[in-house]
Write a structure and sequence with these properties.
Number of helices: 12
Strand order of the largest sheet: 3-12-9-10
Structural class: alpha+beta
Shape: elongated
Distance between the termini: 16 Å
Amino acid sequence: MEKSRKPKIRFKGYNDDWEQRKLSEVASMHARIGWQNLRTSEFLDKGDYMLITGTDFVDGSIDYSTCHYVARERYEQDRNIQISNGSILITKDGTLGKVAYVQGLSVPATLNAGVFNLEIRNVDMIDEKYLFQYLKAPFLMDYVDKKSTGGTIKHLNQNILIDFPIIYPTKEEQALIGDYFQGIDNLITLHQRKLEKLMNVKKSMLEKMFPKQGSKVPEIRFNGFTDDWEQRKLSDIYQNIGNAFVGTATPYYVEQGHFYLESNNIKNGQINHNSEVFINNDFYERQKYKWLHTGDMVMVQSGHVGHAAVIPEKLDNSAAHALIMFRNAKVEIEPYLLNYQYQTSNSKKKIDNITTGNTIKHILASDMKQFTVDIPSIGEQQLVANYFIQLDELITLHQQKLEKLKNIKKSMLEKMFI
C-alpha cells in the first residue's frame, strides 16, 4: 500500500496521509455481457423494470424521463447489473468515462450495454459519494488518455480501468468531501435549471410578442397598444446597408490596437469577446468611412448567417470585417426591436430563404435591403425591446453564476483531491 502526499485544502482536524489503491481493489465492475445484449425491439416505453443507458446520463445523474423499460426476465438475468440508489455507473462505450450517481430511483432497474456498474468492496473503507466525485473529476479521463495508443479510444476496456489509482483519506473525511462537492453540484443544477427556464421563457415570448407570418399584431402586447404593426423593408429604415471590409486584414493584425469586430463575435443577438482580433492604427483609419456607431446594427453574412447585434456605446467608432452593416436610420427606430425580431422563428425562416450555399451559408447585403420587418409605434418598440433586454440581462447573470460555480468546483477539485 502506497502513501501519498496531502491535499492543499482539507477540513479541520484531518492531518493523516491519504492512501492509494487500484480501482479494482476498491470496487468490482460489472457490465452486460455479449450474450445478454438487448435488441431494440425489447425496449419498452413503459413497464416495471427500468433500463439505464449511457445516453440517459446528465451531469452526473440519470434522466429517468429518457429511460426505456425491459421485461422481468431481462431484469433478472444478471444480479450484478441490477441498479439501486447509491450505485455508481461509468460509460465504457460512446462518450467514454461519463459517471453517474444513482439517486431518486423508485423502480427496479438494470443496465443496457456500454455501462459499468461499480460495487464498493468494503463500505467501511470507501464512501460512495466520495468515489463518485473522484471518478467524475478529470483524473479518470486524464489517466485513460495517457494509457491510450493509436488514436481515439472508442471503448473503455476493463483492463485499463482496473489499474486506475484511487487516492483517499479516512472514510469520515471522504464523507465530508463527497457532501461538499454534492452541494456544489446541487447549486450548479439549480442555476442550470433557472437558466434553462429563462431561456425557454425568452424563446416562448419571442414567438408571442412579435406578429406571426400573415398577422399584423402579436399574440401578447403591452396595455394601451392596439394599432396594427407596419411591414417595412430594411431599405426604408436604413440609409446605408452594405458590407463591412471583406478583404484580407491579416497583415494589419497586432497584439494591441483597435478591436476589429468579426462574425465570431456575433451570436444570439449579443456581441461577445470570446475571441478578439486587433488591427493597427493605419488600417483602422483607412476604414473610417465604414466605422460603426452606437445604435448601428451588424449581421453575420457568412457561416452562422442572420445572427445580428446592436453596436453598444463602448464600441462606438468600431471597424468591422465580413459583416452586413445597417447604418444611418431614416426613421425613428429602436434597433434592439429589430435585433430581437431577427431571433424569432418567422425571421429565421425568411433569412434562410434568401441564403445561398450548401456547406457554408451566405447572405447578400442587396437581399437584406429587401428584407421586411414588422414595426409598431416607437413607444411600443421601446417597451418590447426593453422587456427582452432585461430578460437577456437575467440570462447573462445566471450564465455568469453558473460559470463561477463551475470554476469554483474545478479549482476545489485540484485543491481538495490529490
